[in-house]
Amino acid sequence: MTAPLALHRVDTPPTGGYYAALTMDYLSPYIPVLVLLLITGVLCLAIGVLATVLGPRRITRIKETPFECGSPSTGDPHSRHSVKFYLVALLFIVFDIESVFIYPWGALLRDLHGEGLGWFAYFEMLSFMGTLAIGLLYVWRKGALEFNT
After folding, report:
1. 18, 30, 60, 127: which has the fewest Cβ within 10 Å?
2. Which residues contact 101 (CB under 8 A, 6 or more apart)?
């Protein structure tokens, strides 16, 4: 006979019987994800090993030259790039993240309205979009969106 729950030590979970089944019920929805991750790991390892074992090993001078889009590369590959490339990348990330926040907000707005938080959520998103609009106007005024090379 097992001891009641109150007599178990706090630092060790109860084992067997009801508790094991309860733990398995909580973890059972994650079994397909675990199987998928396991299959993915095995496939990645298999592809890497097969490419190493079966791949060609004849390295020639022509194979070691850089090749870009079907034409010979020109200039130094380690040359400096304009800061505008990085600025455009950062702007893309900012506005991409904006869309990531707006989509779930739009999906939950009706539920939030039902809980009495509809106007609060609306003004929160309005302030978020206003902040991003001010940032866009600032970048536009600074000329970061003009590409006169």
Report:
1. 60
2. 128
Please give the C-alpha separations between residue 149 and each of 82, 84, 85, 93, 114, in angstroms, as whole numbers.
10, 10, 12, 23, 53
**Domain limits, the chain:** 14-68, 78-142
Give CA–CA dist 135/126, Å, rounded.
14
Q: Which uninterrupted H or E stretch holds 72?
A: strand 71-72
Q: What is the pLDDT of residues 121-141, one digit of tens each?
A: 899 999 999 998 898 888 888
For the chain, the residue count is 149
Q: Which is it for the CA torsion 65, 68, 69, 72, positive or negative? A: negative
Tokens encoding 97: 């993240």
